[in-house]
Write a structure and sequence with these properties.
This protein has 273 residues and is mainly α. The chain has three domains: 69 residues, no CATH class; 101 residues; 79 residues, no CATH class. The chain is 48% helix and 8% strand. Strand 3 and strand 4 form a beta hairpin. Helix 3 packs antiparallel against helix 4. The longest helix has 24 residues. The N and C termini lie far apart (66 Å).
Length: 273
């Protein structure tokens, strides 16, 4: 029996002993068991095998779970990098994480322009990462954009390892540090003067949707920066006693904020009932 993180799983050795020679409580064979040394050798070898695998998973920064420990390595070795990327994109879309799915699609498309993705994960080595970076820089990608793409690639790589798609000899991302590409960008905040100018700006001659875009932006500003997706899901029933109550679409966390006078004016402007 293999124990890990308060879970247990039986591990077969291909040998058996009579019930009277097995200590169920201590999970070991008894001292008087015939062929005890030979059986104990097999047990010890199996334990060392999994201890070695645990060390390797930790070294590769892969979560140690029953799934990663006991997944039959090689049963999906025919899965290419491109195929697996598409699987991940499909999963993201099924749970409606369309923003993340689109970022994966962009990264995959760039990889396909760089080289064929009909390759195994074992070919995704340090040389590939360096050459892919050069390719992206030649296409005008700057450090911040590169970091996003390599973070996605690293996440897909680690996911493939954790799901048993392949067993790497080493993790190229340990030498190719994605974080080292990051360039701090000075945070920029819009001034109150600019907000006032936008509020007073007359866009009546620019069409309905231009005016709507302006009002949604201002509504977000007046409502403590509420996310645009959360705005789209608001209803009149979310307003109670001068406050708006809603659940963040991204996290599910319940939020509430004061309904300002300016925000109320925008609501009234589009109210139809």
């Amino acid at each position: 029996m293999f124990f890990h993180d308060n879970r247990k799983k039986p591990v077969g050795l291909g040998v058996s002993v009579a019930r009277e020679y097995w200590d169920a409580e201590a999970q070991k064979i008894t001292n008087d068991c015939p062929d005890r040394d030979d059986i104990q050798f097999q047990i010890t070898a199996k334990i060392k095998e999994y201890e070695k695998k645990i060390k390797k998973l930790k070294a590769l920064e892969i979560p140690v779970t029953f799934e990663t420990l006991f997944e039959t390595i090689g049963k999906r070795m025919d899965c290419t990098v491109g195929d697996y990327f598409k699987q991940i994109i499909d999963r993201l879309e099924k749970v409606e994480k369309y923003g993340s799915a689109n970022k994966h699609k962009v990264t995959l498309a760039l990889m396909q322009h760089f080289k064929s993705t009909s390759m195994g994960f074992d070919e995704l080595d340090l040389t590939y990462l360096h050459e892919f970076e050069i390719f992206l820089r030649q296409r005008g990608n700057v450090n911040n954009s590169l970091t996003t793409k390599f973070s996605i690639l690293k996440a897909v790589y680690n996911k493939a390892v954790s799901e048993g798609i392949f067993e790497p000899k080493s993790n190229p991302f340990q030498l190719f540090k994605v974080g080292s590409l990051w360039t701090n960008t000075r945070k920029r905040a819009i001034t109150k003067e600019d907000i006032h100018k936008l509020f007073e700006l007359d866009l009546s001659d620019r069409g309905f949707y231009t005016q709507l875009a302006k009002d949604i932006f201002l509504f977000s500003y007046f409502m403590a920066g509420i996310n645009f997706k959360d705005i789209a899901l608001l209803s009149y029933g979310d307003i109670d006693n001068g406050r708006i109550y809603y659940a963040r679409r991204k996290t599910g966390k319940m939020m509430n904020c004061c309904l300002t006078e300016q925000a109320q004016e925008i609501i009234d402007k589009y109210r139809t009932d």
